[in-house]
Amino acid sequence: MTLHVVGAGLAGLSCALTAADSGLDVVLHESAGQAGGRCRSWLEPSIGEVIDNGTHMVVGGNRALFGYLHRIGASDRLVAAPTAFPMIDLADGAPWTATPLRLLPSLLASAWRMRADPNATIAQCLDGSRNYRRFWEPIALAVMNTPAEEASARVFRRVLARTLWRGQAASRPYVVRQSLSDTFVVPALAALASAGATIRLGQPLRRLAMADGRAVALEFDDQTVPLGSQDGVVLALPWTVAAGLLPGLPDLPSSPIVNAHFRLTVPPSKLPSGGFVGLLGGTAQWLFVRDHVVSVTVSAAGGLAERSIGELRQLLWADVSNALEIQDLPFASRVIKEKRATIFHSPAVEALRPTAHAGENLFLAGDWTATGLPCTLEGAIRSGIIATRAARAAPHLR
What we know:
Number of helices: 13
Low-confidence stretches: none
Shape: globular
Strand content: 25-35%
Structural class: alpha/beta
Radius of gyration: 21 Å
């Protein structure tokens, strides 16, 4: 059996690795000239530094992610941060430290409702709990990329059950040592090559030929690949791209993210603990420092993403200079809008997320599929594992 994995983002890389390790012949197809999808890095000419597409924080409870890193030999490419989260209220400049485990008892009274009511939102369950506005709301916004007033409490509870409720080790945050590509992509491609997988970059899939609920051919610019009776296909693509190839997929509303990277002339003298800090009372939400590059992330950035790059640069730099007490202007900057960064994690949209099985020999992977988790690195990696398991279990592909 050959499994064709279309899309070399984190979901596709995870799927291809899991399939290769289970003894399948794997061909990985990617439309771009590089792998990684949204989890990638590049040398940005405007600032002369390697930057990430978006800044990601992971925690010790992300078991699928740490298993993936162990498999590709990159476990040492994450750096552990303190378990306490440094926070700054930009309105008055007051810093404080949030220790999630100390705040956990405030969640216990809401735990039952978060699990029992599939239509409950995070705000309905947690608003009024201790430090909701100062910690739980910004954490929920970062995890779900959806305002707490509209985000699914049930999905957020699954995140808590895998992290905070498992103790300090599962709650410890980690950031990448160098870059997303160096951590998650380059070693994965090397591991796939060592496992005998075929990797085809720069090969966009133009058409997926179907017959009687079965994928029968993959049409690329340079060739058409017929599929044998025991061959399978995993579409590990963004949901908008997958929907263009496979009519009938549900319409999943999206939620944007805005990221900005500022290169300073010298590293800031005021460094946040662990290299990151949460910001309240401004436009920026999370700030990360790596040497003399400061990166800012704004989740659920609906209206913000409609503003001009110049406006965004001014707004976000004002928060950075305030938080880090920097008087000089940045040497250079780069603002990135991702208007379809993730799906909108409302209870109604959660009910629409498709399962991995899309046809007799056709499967779906991606953080937007029904993984039970929000659209995160952990969700993407988990989706690749789920898709491979579904392919292995399909009766006609054994």
